[in-house]
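User: We ran a pulldown and think these components assemble together. Before we commit to crystallization trials, I'd like a predicted model of the whole complex to look at. Sequences follow.
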Amino acid sequence: MTSSPDTAKKPAAKRFDGERILLGLAAPVLAVLLSVVICAALLATSGKDPFHAFDVMFTYGTKSDAQVLTLNRATTYYLAGVAVAFGFRMNLFNIGAEGQYKLAALFAAFIGAQVDLPSFIQIPLLLIVAMLVGGIWAGIAGVLKVTRGVSEVISTIMLNAIATAVVGLLLVPGVFAPKSSGTSNSIQTDPISASSHFFALDTQGGSLWGFIVVAALVGVVFQLVLTRTRFGFDLRATGRSESAAHASGVNVKRMVLTSMVVSGALAGLIGLPDLLQNSYYYGQNFQPGLGFLGIAIALLGRNSPIGIAFSALLFAFLDVTAVQLPFAGYPQEIVTVMQGVIVICVVVAYELVRRFGLKRQQQKVGAELAAQAAAAAKKEVSA
Amino acid sequence: MALQRNDAPPDHQEIAITASDPALSKGGTPSAGTATPAVELRGITKRFPGVVANHDINLTVQRGTVHALMGENGAGKSTLMKILYGMQKPDEGTIAINGEQVEFNTPGDAIVRGIGMVHQHFMLADNLTVWENVVLGGEKLHGIGATAKAKIKEISDQYGLGVRPDALVEDLGVADRQRVEILKVLYRGAKILILDEPTAVLVPQEVEALFGNLRELKAEGVTVIFISHKLHEVLSVADAISVIRRGTTVGDADPADVTARQLAEMMVGAELPSPESRESTVTDVEMLKVEGLRIAKADAEGIERVVLDDISLRIRKGEILGIAGVEGNGQAELVEAIMGMLPLDAGSVVLDGADLSGSLTRVRREAGIGYIPEDRHKHGLLLEAPLWENRILGHVTEAPNSKGVLLDPAAARKDTQRIVEEFDVRTPGIDVTAASLSGGNQQKLIIGREMSHDPKLLIAAHPTRGVDVGAQAQIWEQIRGAQREGLAVLLISADLDELIGLSDTIRVIYRGRLVADADPATVTAEDLGTAMTGAAAGHIESPPEAVAEAHAIAIEGTEAEAAEAAEAETAEAETAGAETAEAEAETAEGDQPTDTADGNAQAGE
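Assistant: Here's a predicted model for the assembly, 988 residues in total across the polymer chains.
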């Protein structure tokens, strides 16, 4: 019992860590590179010079107004990624962020237009309304899963469709939209009161949304809750092995419900940067698809707050700079193709890297222990 | 003696292992057969990351025989059969089928060579008929119509399987489904049949019927490889036996002249826990009281089945209560009921005076229940998490793992380091994933974790399953050490020698009921085995000479004084209940294990 392996303990631990980081980076980098190659090949086969296209994107991307646009868009994407990632960490696939944020933004817009309180009350109120609506909507899927065993994938997809219908029901003149439709043909809520406007920073490249601070805060809290709290441990344990978590005393049903609600509440924030900083109203043209984009971003970012930040920036960069492509004679859709390819590649790459890493570590531990045993035997013989 | 084992350095065990190596020479061709063997495996080695699952295995199976492959759980039987069935490729070694050297890349290759496998868990579509299930995937053989059906009928009649092609699989019982599985592989032209623990799911009568089928198959020239770890089953049906221990063949045996005891020894090696008399640590203080436990749940067929029926038991401080039983008779449910993982239909669980019947698992753990789960990968560990996070698992609310709602990773890591050192977990560090440790070291980590929170009750379900011999002795010692400190232990084990060696009291569970009890000092594994099949009830005692013989074997080559103790016990047992024991032996007449035990005892004297 005394032959504890004190020697070689420290360097081994370090080496494993360094390798883990390297392996962690390998997958997304490979995926992005591969998708660039595939898109280049696509452009080349359609008779266009791929390098010029990338050049156009990068040239525009280095301009300060493009950078501000990228950051603003990344703010929204980041929230979408984090909302989905929270569920993913527990193996809950919240496909319903789409419906959750739409409903949340609609209610926030409506209340923002009806109420006019001082900013320091008004803005938190709108944040809370959005999170509540998102959380409740996602909670429906949570309750269904816990009580009836309905897969959250199915129920959230269906709830997306229902959310669209509910928005359609509410966003009519006399309900959430003003009675007199005025000059515009599109139906939309009244503009939110001025006190609801979120602060923005004026930069060379235009106004940078202050909501980026909220997004960063969400990321920090997300990380702290996951790694430093009992709740976070329970959540990660459930995500890694539901049966082990159950045996260890985690109330799995309650965890499912809680995570679903939290994921929905975070999803409720997705629409707010645009609502409070840009459009100021909710209309039929409110940006769709963010919830689904969040799934891709969370996957690429490996459900970690920092990873999601990078992937949100990448997706925002691609979207912003893609606008320049048509001017140079390229189809803008190539960027969508690139995003899609990235996601497919990254899913495959992560799984490959995960298996490789696990196997490699097992072999290393085996080798290291064998070496230790051999050393111990030698000592025994010489003694 | 116990102290000695504790002090023995780990290398001591390694020496013991190498010492048993000469036994390898026993492996190989049992008799210089004139006919080409149906299956010949030579020097098969298969390594998995961190462990060697099979090491230099030699196996020869003669055509038209039932060849039993024996070994404990985790001994490497399944891996070997997966290699033979083409599901895994060996790292070294050769496979010869009917004298011809072959290489299998997929099960398809093996099927072409006439090898078929019936898995322990059936692979049938419930909502299809027998005929559809058999044809599924083999449409090219005889089509899907009348020809196929006729063929099924023909095979069924030829081998006496009694399968009705038009019956819906969901209407069939377990035994019938198994016959469908067998028919399925025969339909695909299998001449060599691998049955992976076929009796695990069957009741005794069904086992007999299955053996009848196997004899029929044998008569028709089919070769059967039969995986099992049940001694008397193997002795009653097999023509040849090969034993695997810790990944390597330790010997072949002829069922005609081998006893259950000898087989058991071959299976577990010389490392049987010695049921030496030790000072009793049992106190009068009641620690766990379970009263009238009842659980009914729906089984795979959707039929409500009572899995635990009116279970009442008590464990006192310093007492180890062993539960013996064939797997699937309610042990797992009993553990889960006490842990709060399964809702109770009736009954109560009281720990140290506190009623925990309605409490959540976490509350029960906090109240002082330590849990060594049966399936450590499923219930005991987060395989892809580092060791220190695994140390937190199950005790996240307790010091040193957390302060309030916040985790305390630094303290948890420090304590993990302590566990690694104190419990001799062989690992290069606490940041490696649990998956990279060997089974024994994973188990030691779990035990270290559970013992670190001053449990009042320890539930140990198969604590040494799939664990190497060195770790096994350490685990036994740790459980005994905990017992000396006043822990109440509920021990569930399929290894009867472990049960007898460790327990203070043994209860036998059969079909969800505690049907019998025994004093480990006065019972043999064979008689306990009989009770586990439901053939005996009440208080069981073995003939004293059989007990003495078992004890003598167990302590052979150890200490003389322990032998004296065993004799003293025997004398005691003789006065205690020789008559009842004889009566028991009468009732168990014709049962192989009892007979052999008796014969053994006589031979010994």
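Chain A touches chain B through 48 residues (CB under 8 Å). That may be worth checking against your pulldown data before setting up trials.

User: Thanks, that helps.
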